[in-house]
Amino acid sequence: MTDNQSLMPVTEWAALVPELMVSDLPRSLDVYTRMFGFTLNYTRPGFAYLSLGRAQWMLEQAQPGKAWLTGPLEMPFGRGINFQIVHPELDALHERLLAEGYPLFAPLTTATYMEGDTPHTQRQVLVQDPDGYLLRFTD
């Protein structure tokens, strides 16, 4: 996948790190690093640990009979969940997605969400990764 010279070790572990089963780990790694801007921290066979700003992420090659699979994986993976990820360069991400023709689930918009009487406004763009996991990048 990569040589160890290009890896960035993790210096502090996040309190919550999603681990996503993927159908094609090399393809997912390409999209997460080249398109979405994640940094590859380390790998081992069938596994990769990535980060983006303060977000940390694990990808694992799905394998039949894997002990941690709770049911069959059917496209799109991750139904019923979206991951909100603060992106340190949201405009650059959006430009890269458009330039590469990467499909947007929802275009770059500004959204306001209420917390009681307090509005919280953020810009966001939504995409699905190669396996269909829904990612909501915000700034």
UniProtKB/TrEMBL annotation:
Pfam hit, one: Glyoxalase
Domain VOC: 14-139
Claim: Transcription regulation is one of the keywords in the record: no
Top-level division of the source organism's lineage: Bacteria
Signal peptide: none
Alphabetically ordered keywords of this record: Antibiotic resistance
Family statement drawn from the similarity comment of this UniProt entry: Belongs to the bleomycin resistance protein family.
Protein's recorded name: Bleomycin resistance protein
